[in-house]
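Hi Prof. W.,

I finally got the Cytochrome P450 prediction working! I wasn't sure whether to trim anything, so I left the full sequence exactly as given:
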Amino acid sequence: MMDAQEGKLSAPAENIKSRDDELYSLGDEVKSMQSSSDKTLTEDEAMAQCVLFFVAGHDTTSSVVSFTLYLLALHPEIQDKLREEVNECFEKHDNKPPFDVTAKQKYLNAVISESMRMFPPGGRIERSTAEPYRIGGTGITVPKGCVVAVPVYAMHHDPENFPNPEIFDPERFIDENVSSIRSYLILKDSSMKMCHLSGRTLTYSSARVRGTALA
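And this is what came out:
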């Protein structure tokens, strides 16, 4: 993996190109950092990022796939609709759809997103503040070094965020419906900007492969 990413650490941002068939691109990290005030990655940090990509992705994939298959088994009508989309995709590409095509299957992505909403791989995220932060006009200041917990599972099952949260409904993540999802929520479709997780792309890609094979 390091060989594949060679040259991207020192290259100018405008010279770094991403490809739709890449599961992970260190170039994306470099472009993001070069466009901000952040320092660029060192070689050791780049190696750690590549390792994190695999660890984070593999650690969550089995959970996502298992719950997705479980939910599809409980809802055969959704499974039938997914199978129809997958079969159509295969027929259009002589049973060999390229990676970037499978990544754009709307209903497959919606099924995976809804599964991750109901059973998020990380039910709780914790981060430590790097500096004091004042919360709007509340008068509350979060001190440096404070552990902030984000209750992902609770957010995904809050009726104010997702109506009828206990119902498996992939349509939440289809076209115009997805615009009603509040922008600060952790989970959205993989093609949309969301809280960055290094293993996210691998998790989604692995789930797509398994979902496509089993649909």
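The chain has one domain: 42-214. Does that look reasonable to you?

Thanks,
D.
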